[in-house]
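Researcher: I'm comparing several assemblies side by side, and this is the next one on my list. It has 700 residues spread over four chains. Same procedure as the others: predict the full complex and return the structure.
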Amino acid sequence: MATIRDVANLAKVSVATVSRVLNDSGYVNNKTKTRVLEAMRELHYTPSTIARSLNNKRTKTIGLVVPDITNPFFPELARAVEDVAQHDGYTVILCNSDEHVEKERRYFEVLKQKYIDGVILASNADQNPDVYLQMPVVVLDRKVNERIPTVVAKNREGGRLAVQHLEDVGCTRIAHIAGPQRIKSAEDRKLGYLETVSDQPWYSPDYIVHAEFDIKHSEEATTELLAAHPEIDGIFAGNDLMAVGALKAIHRYGKKVPEDIAIIGFDNISLTTTLVPELSTIAQPLYEMGSLATRLLIQHIEQRGNHEHTDQHLDHDLNRCYELDIELIVRASTARKKHVTQMKALNIQE
Amino acid sequence: MATIRDVANLAKVSVATVSRVLNDSGYVNNKTKTRVLEAMRELHYTPSTIARSLNNKRTKTIGLVVPDITNPFFPELARAVEDVAQHDGYTVILCNSDEHVEKERRYFEVLKQKYIDGVILASNADQNPDVYLQMPVVVLDRKVNERIPTVVAKNREGGRLAVQHLEDVGCTRIAHIAGPQRIKSAEDRKLGYLETVSDQPWYSPDYIVHAEFDIKHSEEATTELLAAHPEIDGIFAGNDLMAVGALKAIHRYGKKVPEDIAIIGFDNISLTTTLVPELSTIAQPLYEMGSLATRLLIQHIEQRGNHEHTDQHLDHDLNRCYELDIELIVRASTARKKHVTQMKALNIQE
DNA sequence: TTGTAGGCGTTATCAG
DNA sequence: CTGATAACGCCTACAA
């Protein structure tokens, strides 16, 4: 591989000059500039990022920590992250934490050693937020700490919307398969549920069961739930994957969706439209969340460089939590009885 | 961040000595060794990978190029890759090529600049194989070139198995929704299909339609196919995603799976079990493929270091194409009429 | 067994 | 405008 020195020799200038045209910093005569450029072309020269990083301390690389890329929720985020990273000249290192504290720590160690510029964290096994303050971090789809920029959806409102929709389609006994209590967004969705139903006469705390954010655990939980409470006619699942589990449990239990039990999920991952029946859900703007988080992180990284804090044009405020809008998506899994919401819509149109 | 020099000072030795204990290379007195180790601990010292890479020319980083991580086929591979990499101290850079030559080339450029140690390629937009010979590469789920180590499944045999299974369950007009002709594995599956049915009296080339490896295109293709050939009673889809598309088309067409049309996919991605009906498929050992590819790549990388070619214990032969076994998975989407295969199995057991 | 010194490829700081 | 030269943090002969 050709080095900057080779280029300098060929162009009969010093390495300093080559460096200057490389970064177009400082003055450099137009003629010598073209000479240098030609030399670079001739030698197929590309600067070594590594060598650069050695004095920069910046690598144009960010880490993306997710629990498990195999969970269909994360590829969509990952794709968004990668897209904007790529756009801004950054490269993304993928890390699967499995929500294990140890694994997560090891990753942070490695990422630090590699002089990674920052991390997008969509998994926080470590309950101690300080761990995440060692370098620029943006938290995605979780809440960890006020001091860390965060991107989430309006989970609580989503919970409300989901339950209201179930009520609208005529459900009168609505249960909630909630995600893990250690995960803030799961708790928020649960709050939305509670807010809406806790003063209903039929409500009982037993209508809430907890499970991991996956199909299997949700299926088990739903099975127990149905056994204990056969009167249930609506289920709000903590996310789409859990909704699939619920769907399976209901199916095995011999009831029908949506006729006997209506079901709504959360996230709007692509899986929702491959199911039969297609799954109603609360859509999070996944791609937007991923790309916003990445833009925040990159801004964070790049403004650390300018220590003068040139507040001239900070696109985003890094000291706040961005809560993005959610949206109710009605599909077959709640297409049931009189659909009040739809009727409202029709009235408006008439 | 503490540097090697800080450690040296604190331990009252030279940097060389510290370096030695770091890599336990060369001789170093036990006492001084412990002294150094303590100094390292005290300073929370971790060596800078960047600085190391500058003379090594190795970064302990590999690239993973996939068409689109959002396609549910790839997360499972990615996970395997990441697991093995992580185990061996490597880090994975994720690249989405969208099968665009330009994007792919840009990635290779960037990866080279970053002194990436090697690449796992699960997408080859570039038809010129030489592009991939600039650094250690292992091709996964594709075939590009004899000279590049490759890991694939027995696609052709899988095609045969799929079609035979459809015949076994009583299908007599079997169509094939084939993947893109530019993709070797898709072509191989098609060959398996052809091999099995081309001498059947009912066979017609019209029974093969091509589409992209995704739901939407497959749905369209299937719709046309059904319109032209309503007599079809079995479909072998080029992969599971395409099977979903076919499922949808059939559903919209008003026919039933598996009663009217049996359907089988390929890959055995997790989606197959969330569908109703669950999808029969030819299982590729995805995780195994990903991990084997990664082990091959790492071996490739590390044996480049030992220029003496210490053939003492080369686990794998890097000059061949690994074709991994596939397996027929029977589920509801082909549970139809008399299931000859199952009967055979029963006979054996009796 | 330990230390010195040069080099990996760039950038940044000074002089010219 | 351009050119030496010292970092950046580590490794590796080569000496001692």
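Model: For your comparison table: Chain B has twelve helices and twelve strands.
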